[in-house]
Amino acid sequence: MTISPDVAAESTRTPRRQRLRHYAMTPPTFFTVEYAINPWMDISTPVDVERAVAQWQNLRDTYRRLGHTVDVVDPVPGLPDMVYAANAGLIINGVAIVARFKHAERQGESVAYANWMDEHGHHPVATRHVNEGQGDLLVVGSTILAGTGFRTQPQAHAEVASITGMPVVSLELVDPRFYHLDTALTVLDETTIGYYPPAFTDDARTRLRELFPDAIEVASTDAYVLGLNAVSDGKHVVHPAQATGFAQQLDRAGFHPIGVDLSELLKGGGSVKCCTLEVFP
């Protein structure tokens, strides 16, 4: 009997298993682009707040339909980027490392999120050096991948390792369009990542290929719509809908891609992952 290529590919896929997650999100009630601190931001481009809120609600509801817990953090007037909750910090191993932002425009978010963490029993702690939370600190298995080059300072990586007791792998970014690690790399499960190689130094690419020989390498077309700014529960991968090539790669690898439209929030330089702070056990 002849087996078609599609059936053969299906039969060799790695089984993927969902693990229910706990997320925190902040609605874009006060979202606007009134300053430019990354290449995606253009203060001359109008923002449709009503549409941004509707897109955000769809993302929140998608997580809940998948069975995940979503805590909603109250937005604060005057902090338009607070919707990008991933940058708030890193909550893991019983502690919450609060972000220390590089840019003055975002520093008020540290106070708002530290208050929320404290109210919810997450024991917030601060670093001496700049760290921008899960924007640059991505947990994969028992390791933290840590970005640097544009926002988080490399000295913060050692602080994070000391606070969490977890090994930290430093990865340097070189393309300002990918100013946070979560714009150029996504964690798909405990052993699998997707990433955009040109966003990294040669040394970082070598390290990633050593650690993740089966990684999904994404093309420029998908990277340039922040397609890697995605969230996975180990089986379902919620990603920017415009990243159709990445969706096909995920499907071939045995994941279930779910595209969502966050085009309004892309105007501030963020998408799915930027809007999602994972609360680890």
Key descriptive features of the protein:
disordered N terminus, alpha/beta, single chain, 8 helices
Mean pLDDT level: 95
Largest sheet: 3 strands, mixed
What would CATH call the homologous superfamily?
L-arginine/glycine Amidinotransferase, Chain A
Counting DSSP E segments of at least 2 residues, the number of strands comes to 15
Second CATH tier, the architecture: 5-stranded Propeller
Q: Identify the overall geometry.
A: globular
From the helix content, strand content and strand pairing, which structural class follows? alpha/beta
Specify Rg, calculated over alpha carbons: 18 Å
Order the strands across the largest sheet as they lie in space.
2-1-15
* Percentage of residues in strands: 15-25%
Count of alpha and pi helical runs: 8
Helix fraction, binned, reads: 25-40%
CATH level-3 fold name = L-arginine/glycine Amidinotransferase, Chain A
General description of the model:
- This protein is an alpha/beta fold.
- It has a single domain (19-278), classed as L-arginine/glycine Amidinotransferase, Chain A, CATH 3.75.10.10.
- Helices cover 27% and strands 20% of the residues.
- The chain has helices at residues 5-11, 49-65, 107-119, 154-164, 202-211, 220-223, 244-252, 263-266, and strands at residues 22-25, 69-72, 89-92, 95-98, 124-126, 137-140, 143-148, 168-172, 185-187, 193-195, 216-217, 231-232, 236-240, 256-260, 277-278.
- The longest helix is centred in the N-terminal third of the chain and has 17 residues, at 49-65.
- Residues 1-12 have low confidence and may be disordered.
- This is N-dimethylarginine dimethylaminohydrolase.
- It comes from Mycolicibacterium sphagni.
- One of its GO terms (biological process) is positive regulation of nitric oxide biosynthetic process.
